[in-house]
């Protein structure tokens, strides 16, 4: 993860948050949508987001246990437990990587009435993400969140 790539992704994620905030929809922080199997959906991410998490996990000299996000929370590439329902970063019902979460988490809401809005916005943001990959001359890959993290962790730090 080149510094200019990380910087561009951070700026883009902050812009996504601003635009989503302008929509009037807000995360109720119930944690329901993080339980993928129970909630009945999957979370997808791109190769750039996998690299983002690898960078965060290696930011403290490769030591996953003492790496911190900008919010001061510990982060690492988790061991994926196929028996666990949902996101490996959900801890005690809350997102432990909220500031650095994938863009799809920023657009998906459990809130009634958000369905049409979020599908439209997700598709637009996904296209922007694809263009960002092209601008940064990075291969574009799209994968299920836990599979992407597991594949990245299997490759080692």
> What portion of residues is helical?
40-55%
Rounded Rg: 15 Å
SSE string, helix = H, strand = E? HHEHEEHHEH
Beta-strand percentage?
Answer: 5-15%
Number of domains: 1
Number of helices: 6
Structural class of the helix and strand makeup?
mainly alpha
- Average residue-wise pLDDT: 78
Q: pLDDT below 50 for ≥5 consecutive residues: which ranges?
A: 60-67
Strand order of the largest sheet: 1-4
Q: What's the shape?
A: globular
Distance between the termini: 12 Å
How is the main sheet built?
A: 2 strands, antiparallel
Number of strands: 4
Keyphrases for this structure?
157 residues, 4 strands, two-stranded antiparallel ribbon, single chain, mainly alpha, two-stranded antiparallel sheet
Describe the protein in words:
With 157 residues, this protein is mainly alpha-helical. The chain is built from six helices and four strands; from the N terminus they run ααβαββααβα. Strand 2 and strand 3 (94-95) form a beta hairpin. Helix 3 (47-58) crosses helix 6 (145-154). The two termini are 12 Å apart.
């Amino acid at each position: 993860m080149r510094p200019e790539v990380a910087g561009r992704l951070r700026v883009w994620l902050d812009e996504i948050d601003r635009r989503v905030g302008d929509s009037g929809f807000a995360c109720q922080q119930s944690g329901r949508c993080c339980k993928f199997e129970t909630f009945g959906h999957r979370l997808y991410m791109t190769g750039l987001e996998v690299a983002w998490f690898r960078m965060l996990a290696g930011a403290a000299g490769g030591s996953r246990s003492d790496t911190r996000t900008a919010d001061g929370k510990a982060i690492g590439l988790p061991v994926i437990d196929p028996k666990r329902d949902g996101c490996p970063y959900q801890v005690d019902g809350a997102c432990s990587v909220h500031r650095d979460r994938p863009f799809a988490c920023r657009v998906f809401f459990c809130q009634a009435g958000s369905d049409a809005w979020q599908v439209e916005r997700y598709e637009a943001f996904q296209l922007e993400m694809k263009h960002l990959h092209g601008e940064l001359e990075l291969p574009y890959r799209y994968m299920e969140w836990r599979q992407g993290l597991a594949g990245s962790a299997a490759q080692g730090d």
